[in-house]
TrEMBL record:
<dbReference type="GO" id="GO:0005829">
    <property type="term" value="C:cytosol"/>
</dbReference>
<dbReference type="InterPro" id="IPR002020">
    <property type="entry name" value="Citrate_synthase"/>
</dbReference>
<dbReference type="GO" id="GO:0006099">
    <property type="term" value="P:tricarboxylic acid cycle"/>
</dbReference>
<feature type="compositionally biased region" description="Polar residues">
    <location>
        <begin position="1"/>
        <end position="14"/>
    </location>
</feature>
<dbReference type="InterPro" id="IPR019810">
    <property type="entry name" value="Citrate_synthase_AS"/>
</dbReference>
<feature type="active site">
    <location>
        <position position="266"/>
    </location>
</feature>
<dbReference type="Pfam" id="PF00285">
    <property type="entry name" value="Citrate_synt"/>
</dbReference>
<dbReference type="GO" id="GO:0005975">
    <property type="term" value="P:carbohydrate metabolic process"/>
</dbReference>
<comment type="similarity">
    <text>Belongs to the citrate synthase family.</text>
</comment>
<dbReference type="InterPro" id="IPR016142">
    <property type="entry name" value="Citrate_synth-like_lrg_a-sub"/>
</dbReference>
<dbReference type="InterPro" id="IPR024176">
    <property type="entry name" value="Citrate_synthase_bac-typ"/>
</dbReference>
<feature type="region of interest" description="Disordered">
    <location>
        <begin position="1"/>
        <end position="19"/>
    </location>
</feature>
<comment type="pathway">
    <text>Carbohydrate metabolism; tricarboxylic acid cycle.</text>
</comment>
<dbReference type="InterPro" id="IPR016143">
    <property type="entry name" value="Citrate_synth-like_sm_a-sub"/>
</dbReference>
<feature type="active site">
    <location>
        <position position="319"/>
    </location>
</feature>
<dbReference type="GO" id="GO:0036440">
    <property type="term" value="F:citrate synthase activity"/>
</dbReference>
<keyword id="KW-0808">Transferase</keyword>
Length: 382
């Protein structure tokens, strides 16, 4: 039975390095990551099929309701999302009050918190899920325009989630290939098993807190470079490497010097991340020139990691080609991680709903390693 949070120890295959590696922390019917076969499944469907043939809205429906929508259900969800694309006055005041130097990821986290404070009461519901997911791109685009001295724009109800986001950022009709690329990106990243930010959202939900608090906490977890903060750092790395000729010496020095290469390695995948395969093909088409360097760096890094870090089984993860793809649809580096959040909001909220549908408080234990039985000395004698 799905208890939502049954903690079980699986037999570890190697010495425990901490970080809850190999621990099953929840049961879920939302997505499955098979790190050995390199497969990602959303509610029974292979990610390759979904990335090539569905819209973000179809996948959000799949994650939230458990099945792919028919035409009528899809139209209904699209119109509900479109109806929620407004910013309440209290939230807009908070967004306007932020310094223009604020990182968009921090602005998004603040806006979600302000939205919760202004409108949310009670237990998480599907209506709140739709209302929040609809607003992620709206909050982000509003802040991004304000910090560049432009007024936020009104959403266009006839546009889908990806197209409306691009429109709100630029104020012009987005190109079809940009909408298609961003949509596939949003599908690919919308859920991923018990990753750090999803686990965070479930922990908060398990205390019977509200949906905004769960998602604010998840945004905090996603922000770090070991999770969703890597793609702009991949871009920095490629810019620093600069040329194909420079790649081998740069990578050798970095790996030998103990540097972690951004966009490589994964806790669960011990083979290529299937999302990276999709994004690689999309990046090849979208930016053939930039792709030459990225691909060469990937090939060299994989062989050098194999040589210098034998047995670690390090491959490219989803973040490596995310940067190239987002660049090609015209998103700036500071929007890479919050755009990841625009996608993952669908998965986080699905997990919050799953958690509260069959809840038990998530409360693990710690192994105490401090001293015992110390003699207590009162303050004026210390
Ligand atoms: N570059 C070089 N070496 C690496 C890398 C890397 N990117 N990743 C892991 N290693 C090495 C470690 O140094 C370690 O070597 P050691 O045994 O000599 O100490 C070994 O491989 C195991 O690494 P851990 O850090 O224990 O692996 P863990 O499962 O904890 O980390 C993580 C996974 C955080 C993704 C890691 O691979 C990493 O830091 N990658 C770079 C950041 C990144 O790309 N993050 C995005 C992840 S994808 C996502 O969250 C959407």
């Amino acid at each position: 039975p799905n208890t939502g949070n049954t903690a079980q120890n699986t037999t570890p295959t190697k010495p425990n390095k901490g970080g809850l590696e190999g621990i099953v922390a929840a049961s879920t019917a939302i997505s499955k990551v098979d790190g050995t076969a390199g497969r990602l499944i959303y509610r029974g469907y292979d990610i390759h099929d979904l990335a090539r043939s569905t819209s973000f809205e179809e996948v959000a429906h799949l994650l939230w309701f458990g099945h792919l929508p028919n035409k009528q259900e899809l139209a209904s969800l699209r119109s509900k999302l479109a109806a929620e694309r407004s910013i309440p006055d209290g939230v807009m005041q908070t967004i306007r009050a932020l310094p223009h130097t604020t990182e968009p990821m921090d602005a998004l986290r603040t806006a979600v918190s302000a939205w919760g404070a202004n409108v949310i009461t009670g237990k998480p519901t599907i209506e709140q899920t739709i209302a929040l997911t609809a607003r992620f791109p709206v909050f982000l685009a509003a802040f991004q325009r304000l910090r560049h001295g432009q007024e936020p724009l009104e959403s266009r109800p006839e546009l889908g989630h990806a197209a409306n986001y691009l429109y709100l950022l630029r104020g012009e009709e987005p190109k079809e290939e940009h909408v298609k690329g961003l949509n596939s990106y949003l599908v690919l990243l919308s859920d991923h098993g018990m990753n750090a930010s999803t686990f965070t959202s479930r922990i908060v939900a398990s205390t019977e807190s509200d949906i905004a608090s769960s998602i604010v906490a998840a945004l905090g977890a996603l922000k770090g470079p070991l999770h969703g903060g890597a793609p702009s750092k991949v871009q920095d790395m490629l810019m620093e490497i600069g040329t194909v000729e420079n790649a081998e010496s740069w990578l050798r020095e970095a790996i030998s010097g103990g540097k972690k290469l951004m966009g490589f390695g994964h806790r669960v995948y011990k083979t290529t991340d299937p999302r990276a395969e999709e994004l690689r093909e999309m990046a090849r088409v979208a930016d053939p020139t930039g792709f030459v360097l990225a691909r060469r760096v990937e090939e060299l890094a994989l062989s050098l990691l194999d040589e210098l870090k034998p047995g670690r089984r390090l491959y490219t993860n989803v973040e490596y080609y995310s940067a190239a793809l987002m660049n090609s649809v015209g998103l700036s580096g500071d929007l890479f991680t919050p755009t990841f959040a625009v996608s993952r909001c669908a998965g986080w909220t699905a997990h919050v709903l799953e958690q509260v549908s069959n809840n038990r408080l998530i409360r693990p234990e710690a192994e105490y390693t401090g001293p015992m039985d110390l003699h207590f000395v009162p303050l004026n004698e210390r």
